[in-house]
Every structure is written in structure tokens, then in C-alpha cells.
Design brief:
transmembrane helix; mainly alpha; 1 helix; membrane; 30 residues
Amino acid sequence: MSEASQALQKIARGTGIVFAGTIILMFFGF
């Protein structure tokens, strides 16, 4: 369970960074 939770946290962090990056790019794009 601990290993799975750590993997999910890493995935969540990665997706969060990508999501924030896309939003920032959209703001600068417009």
C-alpha cells in the first residue's frame, strides 16, 4: 500500500505541474 500511495503521489505531482504549466502557457498565449 505504501509503495502504491507513493507512486500515486508522484503521478499526482507530475500531472499537477503539467496542468499548471498548460494554464500558464494559455494565459501567456492569450
